[in-house]
Design a protein that fits this description.
It is built from 11 helices and 7 strands. The chain is of the alpha/beta class. The chain has 2 domains: 2-100 and 210-229, Rossmann fold, CATH 3.40.50.1860; 102-208, 3-Layer(aba) Sandwich (Rossmann fold), CATH 3.40.50.1860. Strands 5-4-6-7 form a 4-stranded parallel sheet. The chain is globular, with a radius of gyration of 17 Å. The two termini are 21 Å apart. This is Putative racemase. Keywords: Isomerase. It comes from Tritonibacter multivorans. InterPro entries: Asp/Glu/hydantoin_racemase (IPR015942), Asp/Glu_race (IPR001920). One of its GO terms (molecular function) is amino-acid racemase activity.
Amino acid sequence: MHIGLIGGIGVAATIVYYQRLTAAVAERGTTLDLTISHGDIQTLIQNNLADARQPQAERFAVQIDRLKAAGCDCVALTSLGAHFCVNEMATLSALPVVSGVAPLDGYFAREGIKRIGLLGTRGVMASRLYGQLAQTEAVAVDSEIDHIGQAYLDMAVAGHCTPSQREVFVAAGRQMVEDQGADAIVLAGTDLNLAFDGLDPGYKVIDALDVHVSVLADLACDRLSLDEVAIKT
């Protein structure tokens, strides 16, 4: 199956998607058919902060038309923050949309996680992953949500993580584990690999990107059907 990605939101996250998806498909013994359309992170940030779902969905729809013309069979976003308009996007989309949020609830349940701590954009944390967790309770550091969210956006735009930004994220994760009883912390922002890759923070960390990549790799290798994972509209 030919996978389409909307990338550039941000660039660092797109590179990691590309690297990990390529590796995951190779591990499954086949080759990857992939096309990436570059999006504008500044427009996404503005629309996300304004909760302008329809305008952002319309911008994504134009990119999806291009991906369809390139022969893609489905499309996915390389940003969990961008999922704030994923339902509106799916309604407009010329291709089946494979959510990066929807698979997380089942994954957490299979891992035996009862309470998950969230790190990501302000919208992801405040909405508790857009209200899509039914089997697992989600927590966030609500008193610091604006500070953490801004640190995340600054990192995503820059494409690298400063030591002070890393400490913000690591400390927030530690607080959710020690004070709020989180069994693990999910990197619910695809640029957080910049802060956590190669780091042992002293608590369990789950990268949401890896869960999404696993689904996309199974689709690419025809181990899953779109009927099983695509958003229904």
